[in-house]
Amino acid sequence: MEFPVRRRQFYLRQLFLSATPFYIKFSVLISVGRTNQFQGVKITDTLSKQRDVESGFRTINQYVVHQTLGEGSFAKVKLVHVTHRPYVLFAMKVVHRGLNKTISDYLLSPLQPDQKQEELTINTEVAIMKKINHPNIVRLFEVIDDKSVNKLYMILELMKGGSCYKIGQQPLNEDDARSDIRDIIVGVSYMHKNHIVHHDIKPDNLLRNRRGIIKIGDFGLSSYYEDMTAKIRETKGTAAFIPPEAVDTTNYPDGYLPSLADIYSIGATLFMIIYGHPPYNLPNKYDLYKQIINEPIPFDSDENKETTKRISSDLRNLLEGTLEKDPLKRMTIEQMRQHPWVTYNGTIPLPDEV
């Protein structure tokens, strides 16, 4: 049986993952100043800034800072390498934090309801990322606290392939989409078993490394739940990927299971990488939310019907199960792990939990 090149690579990788009981991980980190370890994440509160003699680039501790890779409302992501080791590359997320906040506030203090939303986001992202370590999750290696300008520098695994899909890109075929979704399911399954719900699964937050593996990033909206069966009543996430129960919580007076919101978001992501756009994509948020709540999955709309004719019945079944409007009828992460489309009809099961 001949596999396309990418699928052959994927097949071998999955066999390796299934057979490997643990992962050997390493990072090259030079100790500068006083540091602490939080479950494998180095916390540095001594800062050294200068110009690298060889390149002329600015340095922050042992990191030489290069160009901007991305930028948001209160953070930038820079490419960096370790001094005198230009092949050791990381992504540095430069985050503006609230005044008079120290690194201990973000790592150890409970969330305060009167904090600004960006402070809550920073707090959550650092606190959660320091707890998790998985091959399908972007890894946080170090946090540098720059008290002089109220910034945090988060040293992250560099994802050279960028996001798994962008609007305007050619939609993926089923084999490539399946490879990506398998990675996502394994990562989300690990998170849920560790009581973490992402709340913002979407293509922009699903990043590809140089080997083509998809890893989950951006944990700013994530939450840790001591009891994963407890229900919540809040709207979190990106509009086109939010499930109906999170869009209009008045329809669910007792709340909804947060883990099932991640399942819906995976389904919306899968729909997007197959069809080229989210299932519901009106520009007006009010109209978009009405679509999410009331309209069936638009398999047979004018813009989607040709793609729908080409996809397999198993893929359609998976989309229907993950995009189910009733959260009580929606697929669970374990059902996704066992689904025929995901497992090639059981011939290539997902690797065991790590």
From TrEMBL:
Keywords per UniProt: ATP-binding, Kinase, Nucleotide-binding, Transferase
Q: Which InterPro entries match?
A: Kinase-like_dom_sf (IPR011009), Prot_kinase_dom (IPR000719), Protein_kinase_ATP_BS (IPR017441)
Q: Name one GO biological process term.
A: intracellular signal transduction
The positions annotated for binding ATP are: K93
What GO CC annotations are associated with the protein?
cytoplasm
Q: Does the keyword Zinc-finger apply?
A: no
PROSITE patterns linked to this entry = PROTEIN_KINASE_ATP, PROTEIN_KINASE_DOM
The Protein kinase domain covers 63-342
Gene3D superfamilies tied to this protein: Transferase(Phosphotransferase) domain 1 (1.10.510.10)
Record-level Gene Ontology MF annotations: ATP binding; protein serine/threonine kinase activity
Protein name listed in UniProt: Putative Calcium/calmodulin-dependent protein kinase kinase
